[in-house]
Amino acid sequence: MAFNSEIYNDLEVRTDLEGFHLEAEGHDDPWLKRPATDCCAALLMTGRRLQCWPLFRGAERRGNRNDGEGRCAEARIRLWRGLIEGRFLRHQIYFSTGAVIIQHILLTGGAGYIGSHTCVALVHAGYTPVIVDNFSNSHPAVLPRLRQITGQAIACEQGDVADAAFMTDVLRRYRVQAVMHFAGYKAVGESVAQPLKYYRNNLASMLGLLEAMTAAGCRTLVFSSSATVYGDPHAVPMTEDFPRSHTNPYGHTKLMIEDMLASLCRADPAWAVAVLRYFNPVGAHPGGLIGDDPSGIPNNLMPYISQVAVGKRPQLQVFGNDYPTVDGTGVRDYIHVLDLAEGHVAALNALLEHGQHLTVNLGTGQGHSVLQVVRAFEQASGREVPCQIMPRRAGDVAQCYADPSLARQLLGWQARRSLAEMCGDAWRWQSQNPDGYRFGAPAAVVPSRR
Ligand code: NAD
Ligand code: UDP
Q1: Domains in the chain, ordered, with CATH?
Q2: pTM above 0.90?
């Protein structure tokens, strides 16, 4: 059925004549058998957020549409004109006329590792994502996989985030409610070798995006920062008020962007910005369809171990075993990428509700050494991971793990998944897709050699 466009209350709405009925199959509840036009909802404007409390029972039972706090993100509601005014802060509202307003959450770099997992978490929380990516470090094959996982086609615009005119057009066309900015280059070593490439892409894409958001009137942003802004920390665990510094151009771009965002929020309080300092994201969606797909030799520990386990590389080089840690190897705060993705949803909810400028660590609060990760991976995969001890890697710190209590306090979020789950999910992704996204459909699971 074709969509019709009309203008309603200064918002473009689309009429979906098929959008009238609830998904009622398999339920005895007579409320669910009714046409959506007979359902209603209580609407509540709290701060900057429109909450939608569906009065038809059963909505919660549909599981992934509920954001976990009793709010149903995709309620079909009767239009109560008096109550609906101001900004719509939930993305999708169906009217009794059959009209539907869809607002999107824009993910720059959404085809990449963290963006693609956040896309899944957003859909599960009831949001509608749209991706902008130039595929400089990702592959369009992620899109059908996202569709398979979420049951929805995810809109994607190919282009450069630094192009402010292009981004303004995307923000307007998709009625973007908020942006999550993942796009950027992230390889520390490469940033040392090619600093201008990093300053150009990371800073220009942030500036282009902020200019476009200003032009389009969208001022809600979640930014991917990193624990790298703590430089070489004087103690662990690290809290957000630790002094910041940088040891490489990549880290410098994150630090400069954090400062840029702080200036913007000071200058214009209409901006709502969450700076999320990630620790070490690892793992993959448990279905094995999406995951980390580094090009060339992996820089990071977990993808390297995965490639050794699957037989693509002979052994792991362990960089240093003389650190003052539990077994001499470096200690990091590994966090499951789905926990991280859920942290983004929590940050988005907080921004839409309270509209503030916040900076939080997203980590588990637990450190694991290189050898502990190797052992956990061997356990999860049933494969041996041969190791060779090497000298320390330049620029590495001995220990780095978060104090994540501020995120718990401000966002009501905390990481839930264990190191065993991180390794198990990373292995499923690697073994089902030994060459990442490059060769079509995932292969069968590689059998254990042990
Ligand atoms: P990724 O490389 O997998 O994803 C980044 C995506 O951005 C890629 O799809 C790439 O094609 C795209 N991109 C890059 N520049 C672009 C541009 N100018 N225009 C449009 N698209 C562009 O990286 P990731 O691991 O998903 O990281 C996402 C963000 O999180 C990055 O900003 C990174 O610095 C930050 N971060 C990552 C980690 C980590 O360990 N993965 C840790 C801390 C912070
Ligand atoms: N590491 C290692 N061998 C590798 C890659 C990493 O021993 O091939 C170690 C590294 O020295 C550090 C830890 O694993 O102690 C995590 O490194 P990664 O690059 O994944 O994250 P970061 O150092 O950026 O926190």
Answers
A1: 4-101 (no CATH), 104-298+334-371+402-420 (3.40.50.720)
A2: no
